[in-house]
Design a protein that fits this description.
The chain is α+β, with helices and mostly antiparallel strands. The chain has 7 helices and 6 strands, in the order αββββαββααααα. Helix content is 43%, strand content 14%.
Length: 214
């Protein structure tokens, strides 16, 4: 299948950025970059292209925008045992994807913005802006998340959509079973969903925590 002009423009931009990422310890594959820490975590940077919406789609400013021909950047941290536990004990990824990260944030959010999408093809101004944001925001942010202890602290600050669950998985993997159990119990108390409670019970069993009840 022939590539679109937008895909070609994205390829060109990534080719320009590849030496820059390599200098910072990343390797690039498709639209994603990975860097492994000494504690076995993976820092992830992902280039996300705007989807193509069919003709006739109604676009609403601030709600549903026409993002085709644009791209944004996602930043994340991949913790193997979390991904394994969340996906029913699949093998850890050799090359981590942003969707599997326990900490996920848009590049623009790291500077206090809600979101930024850049147009393709990226001009010199856009490329310079990306370099600035990576060096000022993304790389320092990821450098603070080099090990599981720093990830636990970030999760404790609410830097995730499921902080208690993710923290419990890390603690269980470290052998801190009582603390992991208490976190899952707290999560269960905060939920009104019978389905979610059942998921937590199954997760507890997979983590070796036994049966948990309130």
């Amino acid at each position: 299948m022939a590539k679109t002009e937008s895909a070609k423009a994205m390829d060109d931009l990534q080719s320009q950025l590849r030496p820059f990422f390599k200098e910072h310890g990343f390797r690039m594959r498709a639209r994603t970059c990975n860097r492994t820490t000494s504690d076995g975590l993976t820092h992830v940077v992902n280039f996300q292209m705007g989807r193509f919406d069919p003709p006739g789609t109604n676009f609403i400013a601030g709600f549903r925008e026409d993002l085709y021909g644009s791209f944004t950047v996602n930043v994340g941290v991949y913790v193997p045992e979390i991904a394994v536990a969340q996906h029913y004990w699949v093998k850890p990824r050799v090359f981590a994807q942003e969707v599997d990260c326990c900490i996920r944030v848009r590049l623009a959010q790291l500077s206090g913005e809600s979101d930024v999408w850049w147009k393709l093809p990226a001009d010199e101004r856009a490329t310079a802006n990306l370099h600035l944001r990576f060096e000022r925001d993304a790389f320092p942010y990821l450098s603070r998340l080099q090990d599981r202890e720093s990830v636990l602290q970030e999760l404790d600050r609410g830097g995730s959509i499921a902080p208690r669950i993710y923290r419990a998985i890390i603690l269980a993997a470290r052998g801190e079973l009582d603390s992991a159990t208490e976190l899952l119990k707290e999560q269960m108390k905060s939920s009104n969903s019978a389905k979610h409670s059942e998921y937590l019970r199954e997760l507890a069993k997979r983590l070796g925590l036994g049966q948990i009840e309130l």
